[in-house]
């Protein structure tokens, strides 16, 4: 390019162009492709190469491509490189493996940048510090009269590095400030008779969302996270599973439903009969509902940021946009028709436990990549983020795979 040509491209414009090109590459070819697209931009000329030193550019790239908003390394460029290398480790099967052992039966997990929280059927929550694999605390819900043997079982956890929120099947919600010696504070007293069982619980920086089963027309409960005020109750998604919801209080049955919050102020929920997207800002309005002709294996369902994965009873996994259920890709999980599959997803990969191993797919194109598993035995919960995969097995072992860049 000529010198005159260089002069007509001011740096802010080149920054915007680099951002757009990288985002377009990540959407069309996958997040790892953004780095190659950026390299081509930076090679055009010295003026364009100078843009590679812009910390603001790398901050925007890290936020848009890796959905990372907190700076954990020296610069945003280093932050971007770290998550790129970590995603590449997922692609190429590079990880370290550890186990954590506990007696109570595992029920549900949650991950943050530095912590892992594991909830159990006896109502307790174990908190671990991931960088050192240390157990930090054990939390218990407030005691009260319970309706059913498993009414105290943890049904969902919301975890950040400063706060832990956990819910039980009977609808109680407790809040813990991490690092504070105070016991859990009960933020909401459940009413299982009028609401049914709280079968799943999740949230974000703005909302807490509960999925209930047992009482018709009360499937979704939405709270304002800051005020802890209940702002919406309604929905019929779990009405066909009402009886199963009550059974959960007294016996361990199949998973009734799951719900996840997306990055677009919506929540996507799943039962064996259908998927449903609701608007969290507008009183739980249904954005999209999609019945399943074959039936969905609820334990296979998960959503992360803007993507969901669910496997039907014939073993077909559909990767969809979480805001409108538009299909992005699909793949086959062989053996899943036996309903033994347990699944999760992160920003680039889908993980399905089946037959004592975890199988991994690239969700951008549906390509099968590899399997891993250190004799996990039967797994009843699995979760992933952009660095870790965690599985809880029936022998009370917590399996931790760390794909973080070294």
From TrEMBL:
Alphabetical list of SUPFAM superfamilies matching this protein = F-box domain, Quinoprotein alcohol dehydrogenase-like
Repeats (WD): which ranges? 385-406
Instruction: Name the UniProt key words of this record, in alphabetical order.
Output: Repeat, WD repeat
The molecule here is called Uncharacterized protein
| Record organism | Solanum lycopersicum
Q: Lineage of the source organism? A: Eukaryota, Viridiplantae, Streptophyta, Embryophyta, Tracheophyta
């Amino acid at each position: 390019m000529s010198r005159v040509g260089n002069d007509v491209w001011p740096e802010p414009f080149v920054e915007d162009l680099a951002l757009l090109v990288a985002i377009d590459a990540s959407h069309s070819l996958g997040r790892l492709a953004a780095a190659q697209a950026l390299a081509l931009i930076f090679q055009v000329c010295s003026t364009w190469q100078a843009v590679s030193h812009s910390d603001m550019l790398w901050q925007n790239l890290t936020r848009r491509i890796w959905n990372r908003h907190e700076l954990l390394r020296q610069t945003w460029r280093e932050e971007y490189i770290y998550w790129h290398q970590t995603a590449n480790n997922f692609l190429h099967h590079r990880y370290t493996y550890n186990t954590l052992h506990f007696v109570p039966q595992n029920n549900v997990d949650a991950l943050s940048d530095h912590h892992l929280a594991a909830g159990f059927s006896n109502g307790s929550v174990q908190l671990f510090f991931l960088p050192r694999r240390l157990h930090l605390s054990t939390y218990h819900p407030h005691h009260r009269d319970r309706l059913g043997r498993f009414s105290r079982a943890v049904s969902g956890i919301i975890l950040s590095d400063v706060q832990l929120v956990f819910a039980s099947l009977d609808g109680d919600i407790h809040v813990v400030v991490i690092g504070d010696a105070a016991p859990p504070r009960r933020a909401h007293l459940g009413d299982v008779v009028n609401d049914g069982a709280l079968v799943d619980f999740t949230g974000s920086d703005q909302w807490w969302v509960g999925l209930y089963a047992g009482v018709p027309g009360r499937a979704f409960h939405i709270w304002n996270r800051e005020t802890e005020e209940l702002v919406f109750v309604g929905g019929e998604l779990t009405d066909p599973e009402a009886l199963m919801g009550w059974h959960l209080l007294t016996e361990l049955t199949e998973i009734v439903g799951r719900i996840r919050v997306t990055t677009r102020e919506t929540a996507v929920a799943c039962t064996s009969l259908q998927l449903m997207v609701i608007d969290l800002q507008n009183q739980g309005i249904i954005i999209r509902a999609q019945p399943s002709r074959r039936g969905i294996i609820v334990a296979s369902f998960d959503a992360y940021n803007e993507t969901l994965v669910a496997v039907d009873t014939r073993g077909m996994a559909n990767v969809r946009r979480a805001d409108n259920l538009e299909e992005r890709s699909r793949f086959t999980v062989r053996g899943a028709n036996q309903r033994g599959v347990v699944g999760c997803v992160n920003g680039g990969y889908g993980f399905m436990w089946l037959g004592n191993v975890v199988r991994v797919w690239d969700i951008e194109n549906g390509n099968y990549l590899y399997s891993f598993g250190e004799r996990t035995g039967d797994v009843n919960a699995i979760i992933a983020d952009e660095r870790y995969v965690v599985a809880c097995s029936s022998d009370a072992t917590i399996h931790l795979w760390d794909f973080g860049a070294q």
